[in-house]
């Protein structure tokens, strides 16, 4: 370095600092206003590696040296500058002999400092989060919105790696985007990321590269938390599905709707309840914690929904423990729910139940007007789904009743021929038939025509009803056995899991019961009747007509053998 006295004097009077830096980024000498500019004693700099000092831009210098090595003889000598706004420094680099570098470091002038202050104030005034990330993926600047969102000051964040504020999985998702930004590309994206504190949020992000000459020194990140907007869109889609979709069932529609609402409202429990009198029944539910089983019943007075129904509109709190309206409420004493919002559900203008969302945690912000209106929209969607659900349930009930009636004898209530045919169709496909465990009996009332002619058809009908009841009483002792009325005074009895001898014994008990029990007749003496029956067993090769024919032949034998008896056909 020059040793002339005049040069030393110039350096002493200079307001700038000068560093003589070797090709391997070692500080060989310093001059000028080192202490004033860099705030570091001369003795700590000389002999140190440039990267040892956090205040210096090693990454920029390395890029400069690399360019010099690639074109050492170029007449267009590299001459570049870098503004370190964080430390209020201006770096100017000059190529020296043998590939070494001289760095001139100046304090920013008043104009630049004022400009920097304006930029910082502007960034702090913006509602979106702004941060500057260097080539090492570390924070160099964060505005006030980012500080408040993360919960750390800019001093605490300075030089911290970005990976420290989010989970490893989320950081892996953004690494390729960092690389694109540091290659000079402007990057825009939306994604859900999970922060180190456990929050999982939806972000809209722009990365804007910051060029130092031809090099990218880092990038600005402009970040918006759009979780609420994203959740609202999902919720509105759920409401649309509830109102319009017909390709998914009621359970799926309600579950999707409740889950989307939980995300948007930031609650833990969602319930659709039905209220009948003082009975509160959970019909559908979603929970981020322990599952709440549909069908669970509470006393209405033990739920916050009693207050909702009294209010007759959307009713809510974010601090039930200190809310006089909830003071001493059984629900608070039992479950400790601090946050609640609910509204009545009406079907055809009549209160049917409630929709409600709750959490044991305090909510940071009160429910907004938009959130209250969205709860009303959710209720409207639930009302439509419930109306459709109840309509379909009623249609199914009526259809089932009609189907049951179509298979039931209108006089006796016993299964009819249609039911018997369905049963037999199912039976022939069953392996039970192959095990010869099915028997069939035919019953006929002896001298029934005489009864009708003597007492009239009304009494005849009473006799048929009475007979069906007595047969059912006997068969009740054997699970699976049943009788069907197939026409007039004729009945078929199906006897399952039995041998032919057991079936004959069962029919003997039926015959004996009928013979020994008088039929009470209003304003007349009791009537006594008898029956005849034929029994057979189902064989592996049999069809129903074959089996019925054999039983009918046995019945014919009983009739012509003196009646009031049971005959068997092999």
TrEMBL record:
Listed PROSITE patterns: GGDEF, PAS
Enzyme class: transferase
InterPro entries xrefs: Diguanylate_Cyclase, GAF, GAF-like_dom_sf, GGDEF_dom, Nucleotide_cyclase, PAS, PAS-like_dom_sf, PAS_4
Cofactor entry: Mg(2+)
Residue span, PAS domain: 115-185
Gene Ontology molecular function: diguanylate cyclase activity
EC number of this enzyme: 2.7.7.65
Pfam families recorded: GAF, GGDEF, PAS_4
A biological-process GO annotation: negative regulation of bacterial-type flagellum-dependent cell motility
GO CC terms in record: plasma membrane
Catalytic activity: 2 GTP = 3',3'-c-di-GMP + 2 diphosphate
Domain GGDEF: 436-570
Protein name in the entry: diguanylate cyclase
Organism: Chromohalobacter israelensis (strain ATCC BAA-138 / DSM 3043 / CIP 106854 / NCIMB 13768 / 1H11)
Lineage: Bacteria, Pseudomonadati, Pseudomonadota, Gammaproteobacteria, Oceanospirillales
